[in-house]
Each structure stands twice: as C-alpha cells, then as structure tokens.
Design a protein that fits this description.
Elements lengths: L11 E6 L2 E6 L5 E4 L10 H8 L8 H4 L17 E6 L9 E2 L2 E2 L11 E7 L2 E4 L3 H17 L5 E5 L13 E2 L2 H6 L12 E2 L2 E7 L4 E3 L12 E2 L2 H14 L3 E4 L3 E8 L5 E9 L2 E3 L5 E6 L3 E3 L2 E4 L6 H9 L2 H5 L6 E10 L9 E7 L8 E7 L4 E9 L9 H8 L3 H7 L3 E11 L10 E2 L2 E3 L15 H19 L15 H7 L2 H8 L6 H21 L39 H6 L13 E3 L4 H8 L7 H4 L5 E5 L12 E5 L9 H5 L5 E3 L14
Parallel strand pairs: 7-20, 8-9, 8-21, 9-15, 12-23, 21-28
Antiparallel strand pairs: 1-2, 2-3, 4-7, 5-6, 10-14, 11-14, 12-13, 16-17, 17-20, 18-19, 22-25, 22-26, 23-24, 24-25, 27-28, 29-32, 30-31
Helix pairs in contact: 3-5, 3-10, 10-11
Length: 679
C-alpha cells in the first residue's frame, strides 16, 4: 500500500558525484554541493551500502551514484515519483538441501517491518542489452524533439552495462544507422569491417567448401565485441538523459488484477532483496527490493528471461496468437589473440559438420577481429536427442580440427562465455504487448537463425516499442498517469518493419531440420535461401519443446571426449575463470529444484537420462556426486545433486534442457554473474 507522505523532519541523503557529495533535504527540496570528503551517516549507512554495491564504472557515474546511499534513497530531479511504502517481507524460502527435501520456513516474523521504495517513472526498461538501450535512447530522442520530459529508467542485473552481453558477433548496422547516424564520429567500437566470407563443411580431418547463402553475405557489416558495443550504447543513453541503474535485478512482477484477482497486465517490477543469507534469513545489511512502477515497462532481458517467461505464462501470450514453442541453441565462445601470421583481419568463416553428428543441429563460427584477435564458437541446437552430448566438450574437441588449430596454435585464449539464444524465429514469436508493457529483442525472439544475426532486429524492435510508447504516453490519463498502458501499436509497427519481413522469409529453414532430416533440410534450405525466399504457401512448425527431444539413456550411445591439452582445449573450470564470474557469498541459491523434490529429480534425470544436466551446463554448476564421495548422503540412484551456483554464467541452458523441467533459474543478487568485456 501507499505510504504516508514524508514526515516533517529533515531527511538527508548523500550522493557521490565524481569527487563531490550532494546533500539533499527532502523537506525543503534544496540541494547543496560540498567538497567534504567525509560525511557522517546515521547508522553507518554509507559503509553498509558501499560494501554491497558492485563496482561502478565511469559509465553513468552520475545516474548510478544513488547506489552509494541506499535503495531507499533513490531520487531524481526534485524527488519525483518517490514514496516510501511499509513493507512486510513475503515468506522467505530457505533453500538448503537437507533430508532430500527443500525446507521452507516463513521467516517474516523474524524480520522487522521494512520500508520499500516505490518509484514511479514514465517508462521502465528491464535489461541493458542492445534492445533495451536502443529503446531508451529512442524515447529520449523523440521526447526531445517534442519538447517533452519523459523519465526513462533502465535496470540491469550486471554490475556494469555490457557485463552480461555475449554474441558472435558480426553486426548489421541498419538499426544503428537509424538510431545514431553519426555513430562513427561518436566513437562506436565498430572497428573491423567484414571483408571476406567463407563457408565450409568439416569432415573429421578435412574441409569442403560450400556455397554461401545470400542471407549470410556480410559485406558492409562489422566484426565486434557486442559487450563493448552495449557499453558504448549505455554511454549514449546516459548522455541522452536515461537513468541507468546497474546491479539491480528484476525479481518479481507487480501485477495488475481485475476485481476477481485475475491477472490482466502489469504495473511494474520489484528488484530482488539484498542481504539474505543462504537460508533466506536477513543479514545485517538486509534491504528489501525496490518497487518500480510505470505505465509502460519494456522487457529486454534477452533469451529466456525470467520475468518475460512469467509474463508469457501468466498472460498466455503464446496462446493468444497461437505461437509455436520457442526453441533454443547454446552458443559457446572464446576470444583468442593469435600470431600475426595466422590472422586475417575481416575474415568471417562459418562451418557445418564436425564435431556435431548429422542428427544435431548446429555449426561453428570464426571471426577475425582487429588487434590480432579471433572470436570463435560453436552453436548447438538444444533439441538434440543424446543425453550424453556435452556442448562444451564438443567445442573443445572442435578446436583441434586443422581448420581451427592452424589459426589458434601459438595463440592465447583471452575470454570465454556461453549463452542460450532463440532459434524459433517467426512462428515462435508470442504476443508482444499487454497492458503495462511489451517484449523487445530476444525476450520476444527476433533472432534470424539462417543469417546468424539478431542485434539489428533487437535494436529495431526496441526503437519501434519506443515510438509506440511515446505516442501512448501523450494520451495517458491525467487522473491516473501511471495506470498500465497497452502499446498495441507496437505490433503494427513490427508488422510493417523489415524485422518481420526478414523473419518471415526464412521461417521454414530451422524447422526443416526436423521435417526433412539433415540432408533434406540442407537441400530445402538451399532452395529457400537462393530461390523461394519464403514465398511458399506453407509454414513448417516447431512441434515440441527442446527438452522433449531428449532420449532415455538406454536408447543412446555414451560419447567419449578427449582430455584437454591445456593449449587448444581446456578443462571447464579454467574456462569459467575466464568469464570473471562472481556471486556474493552467503546468498540464497538462485538455481533450485522445483518443489524441493531432489529425490524425484535424481530418479528421473539420472535413473532415466544418466544426468544430462551435468553435461549441458557450460560452467560446471551441476554435479551428480557418487554416494561415497558425498559422505554417504544420496538423493537417489546412489547419487547426490550438488549445485555450484557460484559458477553460474547466466546462460539459462539448465532451465531449458533439463528433461523433467525441474530446475528453476531465478535472479541472484544484482551485480553477480559474469563480467564479459571482449565477448
């Protein structure tokens, strides 16, 4: 419920801006600057907050400065939209594996009643990738052109903008050209143009040249680190006046309900609580999450975003438009610095075949960046059937093929990462708008799989949502300016854009793999890309979820993978160390077995499938430990499930591929996870 107005006593909050502190008095609205290097805070507030807030880069120092004070002290301008609400914590789950069951205790009575900040903004954006940042920039551009003041807040769960961004990446610039026409003059990190395309089919030891589909022509594109591009977009957004708050993870939906309690839309989100221990009990630095409310919230979480999934499920967004199930791939990537004589700046190479068998959809890439760096990776469709397949191990094996080895030998691996990506395409796009918000970028699923590109579509979708949002805000109710708005015009703009035209043209290529098999799909895809261009009167469909394709262990052959040599291939923990992954110690485990039924999970996933979760995870998060190695403790089948959540690189693959769908991925404390910079 809404709180009473601020009390009459003077409440001061201090914000660090550069080397200065700004002291704000809520009772007077006055702000004064001081050069004091030390300010006395009640109850050591600053010390507490500095201890928990992730490192903040020079990017957005001003707009992020609130973090040094408190989630309860966030202000903007003349403290517009801020109010304090009494908050009684919801029952906290204590996640710990004891007695083969998840124990749940209500600790609300143990926790003092807290004040939760409720901040009302004009547009809220969840996710600081290309889609969310493009939306934010476009809104500010349109507002400036109209002479309006539209407050845009963007929340990002990574410690810094770009930390959780990973892609191939060869970027098509058409969306960037529209958004920031002078991006070259503004120093966008697009330095290496794509100069030469190559496509080959790999046998076990050799390679066969293949014709290059027109969709994969990269003339005019750039080989980039998408992490760096996102960081630069964040800088542009802040210059435009967007408030960017890194280290804030969206954890809950604030639902808009009818008189009968039926969910009909959203009113905003709540960030996750800070300062809970592994048992879900408050530590000394406990603070409840902030509640952000807005008439329009844009979800730009990327593929398989946790809040986006909740919204799709609760509002039945797939059912509303008859969308197919989404299908995914896992992309595993490394960045190397190679010998100058092995480097061919601007080369864009793609492969099919080895190391994957013909019953597994996927392929590899190798992009020669600037500064003698090479980006290479393997994408494996998560609809594979053999539970013994390990995408990580397939990638490590792949690098020993002469096609890659001759480039990498004598080089140095600089970075590693992995991420799930949408592969469903046109048929799998859900309803993208609803009262109070919309899905943009990979939250909706705009990746063009045959083109192996999605950034341009993600950015454009954010820009179209921004246009629809600004138009809708101009007509919002004066009596209730923060009431949920359904930006239905966003769908019309999408339908009339090159996004949907592009996706419709290639809609049959990915599902043809299941319809016709490897060879048939290869022939059909060639006809589609070269001649038919999507003009056929039929649409092939994705019939099942990815996990449903997994076969029981007794129907498959185990796969033997070679040991890493430490030069071209590496053990998984060495790779994880190159992600910069870190999670605050003693926080609730964010990867849990649904309903706490560990025994059932192990019976099904080990007994039937021989534990594929331990192989699909590219970060060694999940282990099925033998009973004798677990001090005699077991869940079932002589095994005990161990979840090393501190290793998690937020790829989301576990919640996609687990055969019985018993793993739930929730957000950890904001600021945790990988710290990508070259990916």
């Amino acid at each position: 419920m809404n709180a009473e107005p601020f009390p009459a006593l003077m409440i001061k909050y201090v914000f660090l801006i550069g080397r200065k502190f700004i002291v704000c008095s809520f009772t007077t609205g006055r702000c004064s600057h001081t050069n004091r290097s030390k300010v006395d805070f009640p109850d050591n507030m600053l010390a507490r907050q500095v201890a928990r807030v992730p490192r903040v880069s020079a990017l957005s120092r001003v707009s992020h400065s609130f973090a040094f004070a408190s989630r309860r002290s966030i202000v903007s301008g003349a403290c517009r939209g801020i109010r304090l609400a009494k908050f009684s914590p919801a029952p906290c789950r204590r996640f710990f594996h004891a007695g083969n069951a998840l124990r749940e205790e209500d600790t609300a009575e143990e926790m003092q009643e807290e004040e939760r900040v409720v901040d009302e903004v004009d547009v809220l954006i969840v996710g600081g990738g290309p889609a969310g940042l493009s939306a934010a920039i476009k809104i500010k551009q349109l507002a400036e052109a109209k002479g309006e003041d539209i407050r845009v807040v963007l929340l990002e769960k990574g410690a810094e903008i770009g930390n959780h961004i990973l892609s191939g990446a060869v970027i098509q610039t058409n969306a960037l050209d529209e958004l920031i026409p002078d991006w070259k003059e503004k120093g966008a990190p697009l330095n290496q143009p794509a100069l030469h395309d190559k496509m080959v089919f790999l046998t076990e030891t050799g390679s066969i040249p293949m014709p290059h589909p027109p969709q994969m022509n990269n003339k005019g594109n750039y080989i980039v680190s998408l992490s760096r591009v996102a960081t630069w977009l964040g800088e542009q957004a802040e210059e435009a006046g967007v408030e960017i708050y890194p280290g804030f993870a969206g954890a809950q939906i604030v639902w808009d309900e009818d008189a009968n309690g039926n969910k009909r839309g959203i009113r905003g989100i709540v960030t996750n609580d800070i300062g809970l221990n592994k048992e879900g009990q408050p530590k000394d630095n406990y603070e409840p999450g902030m509640e952000f409310r807005a008439p329009i919230t844009l979800f730009a979480e990327g593929a398989h975003g946790s809040l986006s999934l909740k919204i799709m499920k609760e509002l039945k967004l797939r059912e509303e438009v008859g969308a197919d199930p989404q299908t995914y791939g896992i992309g595993i990537k490394e960045v190397w610095r190679v010998k100058p004589e092995n480097h061919e700046a601007g080369l864009v190479a793609h492969t099919m075949g080895h190391p994957l068998s013909t019953d597994t959809y996927g392929g590899s890439f190798m992009y020669h960046m600037d500064d003698n760096m090479v980006s290479l990776g393997l994408v494996v469709g998560l609809d594979y059937s053999n539970p013994y397949l390990s995408p990580y191990q397939e990638f490590q094996r792949m690098k020993h093929h002469p096609f890659f080895a001759k480039v990498l030998e004598g080089g140095q691996c600089l970075a590693y990462g992995a991420r799930a990506l949408n592969e469903g395409g046109y048929q799998s796009i859900p309803k993208v708008h609803f009262p109070g918000g919309a899905l943009v970028g990979c939250s909706a699923g705009f990746l063009n799989v045959p083109k192996i590109k999605g950034t341009h579509n993600a950015m454009k979708s954010g820009m179209l949502a921004a246009e629809a949002a600004v138009e809708a805000l101009a007509n919002r109710s004066e009596n209730d300016p923060y009431a949920p708005i359904d930006i239905a015009e966003y769908k019309n703009k999408l339908d009339n854009s090159w996004i949907m035209k592009e996706l419709y043209e290639v809609r049959n290529i990915r599902p043809s793999f299941h319809a016709f098999g490897f060879l048939g799909a290869l022939i059909y895809s060639g006809l589609e890309t070269m001649f038919l261009k999507g003009k056929v009167p039929w649409t092939l469909h994705h019939e099942k979820e990815d996990y449903q394709y997994t076969k029981p262990k007794d129907q498959c052959q185990p796969i033997s993978y070679p040991k890493p040599d430490g030069k071209l291939s590496f053990d998984i923990l060495t790779s994880v160390s190159r992600t910069g992954t870190n999670h605050a110690e003693n926080q609730p485990v964010h990867l849990v077995v649904k309903d706490g039924h560990y025994k059932g999970h192990v019976e099904r996933n080990v007994g039937v499938f021989d534990g594929p979760l331990g192989r699909v995870c590219p970060a060694a998060v999940y282990e099925y430990v033998n009973k004798e190695d677990a001090n005699g403790r077991e869940d079932a089948c002589g095994k005990k499930l161990v979840i090393n959540s501190q290793n998690c690189i937020h790829c989301k693959t576990c919640s996609i591929k687990t055969p019985d769908q018993s793993i739930e991925w929730t957000v950890p404390e904001g600021g945790g996870g990988p710290k990508y910079s070259l990916t």
